[in-house]
Design goal:
heterodimer; A: 339 residues; 73% helix; 0% strand; B: 308 residues; mainly alpha; disordered C terminus
Chain lengths: 339, 308
């Protein structure tokens, strides 16, 4: 009974789902002849076992979190955009190209904000097309945003293999960003200053949630007719919530290239966009559960990669874990537009 | 001009059409599955995961047993098993279909890739299905290799297209599927168990997607590889949307995509043709079709308003 009560809170459900996924994962380890105890110990060490591991985890969690938080207004308004993945890639691209273009002409410290803005603008633009299609032509945003993700993938592939490919690069990528334009690292670890985006976003969202605009957005998601009667413009809500989601995804792309990759690779797509959406839906568009979920998933990813390096067990294990957690959590949400 | 010339030469090469038909098979099978699911009203983003599980279970069983037929059956079973999870999560428990579908992509890719990485030392590769040859027919220029010199699965896929079409169009089950998808309330009023119909449609989608995955590993390659389905499950969703859920149009779209894939490999390295963009074409076509359809039905208020 205590268990049932625990499962009713989002955080409790996340904890229980993770435990159940870990138990299933242990069975999978046994099935392929891996000792589950040492595998999990290795995942734990790689995820949170040291200062360096925590810093690595923060590098993964930051883009995921920025994207997830950016989707909160859209999901509260009942707008179902699954386009973060493409917006992330386009944001990374515009941020990287902007940094490379302006770096010779201005001080390095100024390049960083310019790249951030360019990333936000790129992601926002990529989101606005499906938003306009939804707002003015009533075209379902699920399919259009999915299509835009794949168009972005192939567009980057082409651009980075052709016109935007760095000279003499072996991989499909731009030239590396100049060292001065990288995000400065913190505390002598790999963690970087890009993390300041997170408190800003959290405070902004908390204020938004308590503002009249925030109430109207939620009302629009829950009871469109009532929101209309209260003077909400549906087109405006769709456009601005999707634009915010796109800009946040673009900023996440910038975090990835300025803080981690230090060049734009065609392989920049990591499925973070889809993960972020799933996390916000399961966190019921509330801030704390979303943050907790993103950190958990980032830690798992990091830990699994450490396990691959130290034990030689495939890091693809993490996707099994994440899939199971999402499945177990999804039972809590009824209906398609439930947020 | 040279690019255009090379392009034209490529399009009229016999081998291109034959490999186009061959490459279309996995996507066609998955897309046929997705038709069931979409018609019953379940957006099935999990197709890619079901293909991956089918690809791996098909490969593993074919490799261990030495029988391609057993492998294909295992592929069907693997895809259906993952679909059973979707049926439970999205239909019975009414979980969010986008989350459940995406979770199944993660789970299917994770399982396939993880199990392969952990077992590849003990699993042997094998020869994929051989081509059937219909005597002199297979020597007809142009048409012969494309139509009469394919492996058995290519003909199975065509047969299944006919079966799916007949089931959806002429049987009670087909009517119930359409009823469940187009008007849930009316279907319930007529005594259709919408839940059961949807669950069955999702299972059928999983079985066909699993076969599609196995068509890659058992039918074409004789091996498995990291993310071997390479997004074909998502392409299947795009093709079904493009064909507006109709069976024959879906099949035509799948062959079109197969041709596109065949062209991409052939045109690589020929100057001036951005082959990287070719796989994006189905998605651009989907967008164009959606916009075109929206214009045809006239400009309307946003959906959230319309639904009141």
């Amino acid at each position: 009974l205590a268990l049932r009560r625990l499962a009713q809170s989002t955080g409790g459900a996340l904890a229980l789902s993770s435990l159940a996924a870990a138990a299933l994962g242990a069975l999978l380890f046994v099935a392929v002849g891996v000792d589950p105890a040492s595998a999990y110990r290795s995942i734990w060490t790689g995820a949170v076992g040291s200062g360096d591991a925590l810093a690595q985890t923060s590098l993964r969690a930051a883009p995921l979190l920025v994207m997830a938080l950016g989707l909160v207004p859209a999901l509260r308004a009942g707008v179902f955009t699954i386009g973060s993945e493409g917006q992330f890639g386009v944001g990374a691209l515009t941020a990287g190209l902007a940094a490379l273009a302006v770096a010779p002409h201005m001080p390095d410290r100024l390049v960083i904000p310019v790249a951030a803005l360019a990333g936000a603008a790129g992601g926002c633009a990529w989101a606005l097309v499906p938003a306009l299609l939804r707002a003015y032509l009533a075209i379902d945003e699920i399919l259009t945003t999915l299509a835009f993700n794949f168009v972005a993938v192939y567009f980057l592939q082409w651009l980075l293999n052709g016109p935007a490919r760095g000279k003499g690069q072996y991989l499909v990528q731009t030239s590396p960003l100049p060292e001065g334009t990288w995000l400065p690292t913190l505390f002598g670890t790999v963690a970087n200053a890009g993390l300041v985006v997170l408190p800003l976003l959290l405070v902004g969202l908390a204020l938004f949630g308590r503002s009249p605009a925030g109430y109207r957005t939620r009302l629009f998601g829950a009871q469109p007719s009532l929101a209309l009667a209260a003077g909400t413009h549906p087109r405006r809500v769709v456009l601005w919530t999707m634009a915010v989601g796109g800009a946040a995804a673009g900023v996440a792309g910038w975090l990835q290239i300025a803080g981690v990759d230090r060049a734009v690779y065609a392989s920049v797509f990591r499925g973070y966009g889809y993960l972020a959406l799933a996390l916000v839906i399961l966190g019921e568009a509330k801030l704390l559960p979303t943050v907790a979920g993103a950190i958990l998933f980032a830690a798992l990813q990091n830990g699994s990669e450490f396990m691959q390096l130290s034990l030689g067990v495939s890091s693809d294990f993490v996707f099994v874990m994440q899939g199971v957690v999402l499945l177990l959590m999804s039972g809590r949400i009824v209906g398609r537009r439930a947020v | 001009v040279t690019a255009v010339g090379a392009f034209a030469a490529g399009v009229f090469a016999t081998g291109l059409w034959a490999s186009g038909v061959r490459l279309a098979v996995p996507t066609l099978l998955a897309a046929l599955g997705d038709v069931f699911s979409e018609r019953a009203g379940v957006l099935n983003l999990g197709i890619e995961g079901m293909m991956m599980v089918g690809a791996f279970s098909g490969f593993a069983v074919a490799s261990a047993s030495g029988s391609a037929a057993l492998g294909l059956c295992a592929g069907i079973a693997g895809g259906a098993a993952l679909a059973a999870v979707m049926a439970y999560g999205a239909v019975v428990r009414r979980g969010n279909v986008v989350v459940v579908g995406f979770a199944l992509v993660l789970l299917g890719q994770g399982l396939g890739n993880f199990l392969y990485a952990q077992t590849q030392d003990s699993l042997q590769t094998f020869d994929p299905l051989g081509e059937l040859r219909f005597g002199p027919l297979s020597r007809i220029p142009f048409l012969g290799p494309a139509v009469f010199r394919q492996n058995a699965l290519a003909y199975v896929a065509v047969g299944l297209t006919v079966v799916v079409w007949v089931v959806l169009r002429y049987t009670r089950v087909g009517l119930e599927i359409d009823a469940a998808g187009s008007d849930e309330g009316a279907a319930i009023a007529k005594g259709v168990s919408v839940r059961r119909v949807r669950a069955a449609a999702v299972l059928a989608a999983g079985a066909l997607s699993g076969l599609g995955g196995a068509a890659i590993t058992v039918g074409a390659v004789g091996n498995f590889g990291h993310n071997i389905t390479a997004g074909r499950g998502f392409v299947a969703i795009a093709l079904v949307a493009l064909a507006r859920r109709r069976v024959w149009l879906t099949a035509a779209a799948a062959y079109g995509f197969g041709l596109l894939e065949a062209m991409q490999t052939r045109l690589q390295g020929i100057g001036g043709i951005p082959t990287e963009l070719l796989p994006g074409l189905p998605w651009v076509a989907v967008l164009a079709a959606l916009v075109g359809a929206a214009y045809l039905r006239g400009l309307r208020l946003p959906r959230a308003v319309e639904r009141q």
